Amino acid sequence: MDLVDKLAIKNERKLLLFVIDGLGGAPQDGKTEIEKANTPNLDRLAEKSILGLTDPVSSGITPGSGPAHLALFGYDPLKYEIGRGVLEALGVGMELTERDIAVRGNFATINDKGVIVDRRAGRISSQENKRICKILQEHIRKIEDVDIIVHPGKEHRFVVLFRGDGLYPDVLETDPQKEGNLPIECTAKTEESEKTARVIREFVKKAVEVLSPPTNMILLRGFAKHPGLPAMNKRFKLSCACVATYPMYKGLARLVGMDILESGETIYDELKTLRTNWHAFDFFYFHIKKADSLGEDGNFNGKVRLLEEIDSVIPEILSLSPDVLVVTGDHSTPAVLKSHS
């Protein structure tokens, strides 16, 4: 039990954590996305709020969404290391066992020299993703004594569980994180992870044999086992719920014990879910993903328009009368950089 467990007291207040993924930006023609966007409602809210800067992990560290969200939820991301594979797996509703290595995958495009030309295979549709995952599952069910379980995510993302004895996650990721590079061969970082690396190399090889352009490569990262975190409801004496559309963020919420509220894909769908469940929980994690995606795509004006759309729903959020409303980002994804910063 830490100090938070001792100090937390159950009460009737409503807390809303509104996370705009990849919110921060960098200047293009002298202004950032936030500066260029017309956001009168957020401006008025800022005038009467406490303002500050977040440093989710530590000074000088560019955080991934997983560690950054853990920090926002009140957990030390340097203490609890969580691979993205676990988050993706939990987010799509997969059940993990102690024998599982969970891995996050991207469908990608390589040229005839094996060089990655698109890490997201053109952001294929989720329907196409399901079709390809079905093909992979039909052709690759077992490698050595390890069961292979493939599950589609959204767009170009998918999840693989490697289920078997003697598996450890200390292996190199195959995703170089940048286009123009060759995929990285999975090798073990420790002797005990040799089996894991060998199985993964064979999985990649078999996958490439059945894939075809433009989706002709898989990139794997976030190898992990379930870490077992203390639940938020016990730590903070709160009943907690998540409103999100992307599997990874639902996975984060499940990992810390939140209830996952099913919602449609748009901001307005998420708002409807929030309003419908407002009286059932104390704490709501409300997540908007698209700002991050637009930043990664280098779509500066698209991100500006999205921020203006988000601003337009602030009055409806305020009409719920939360006792505490936090509007923040988990990290910055400037469109001019096309990456986290």
Number of domains: 2
H and E string:
HEHHHHEEHEEEHEHEHEHEHHHE
CATH topology of the largest domain, what is it called?
A: Alkaline Phosphatase, subunit A
Q: What is the CATH-assigned architecture of the largest domain?
A: 3-Layer(aba) Sandwich
Topology:
Elements: H1 3-7, E1 15-20, H2 33-36, H3 40-47, H4 65-72, H5 84-91, E2 100-110, E3 116-118, H6 126-139, E4 142-143, E5 146-152, E6 157-163, H7 194-210, E7 217-224, H8 232-236, E8 240-243, H9 247-255, E9 259-260, H10 267-276, E10 283-288, H11 290-296, H12 300-312, H13 314-318, E11 324-328
Parallel strand pairs: 1-10, 1-11, 8-9, 8-10
Antiparallel strand pairs: 2-3, 2-6, 2-7, 4-5, 5-6
Helix pairs in contact: 5-9, 11-12
Structure description:
With 341 residues, this protein is of the alpha/beta class. The chain has two domains: 3-81 and 228-328, Alkaline Phosphatase, subunit A (3-Layer(aba) Sandwich), CATH 3.40.720; 86-224, Alpha-Beta Plaits (2-Layer Sandwich). It has 13 helices and eleven strands. It has helices at 3-7, 33-36, 40-47, 65-72, 84-91, 126-139, 194-210, 232-236, 247-255, 267-276, 290-296, 300-312, 314-318, and strands spanning 15-20, 100-110, 116-118, 142-143, 146-152, 157-163, 217-224, 240-243, 259-260, 283-288, 324-328. Strands 2, 3, 4, 5, 6 and 7 form a six-stranded antiparallel beta sheet that branches. Strands 9-8-10-1-11 form a five-stranded parallel beta sheet. Strand 4 and strand 5 form a beta hairpin. The two termini are 34 Å apart. The model has no long low-confidence stretch (mean pLDDT 92).
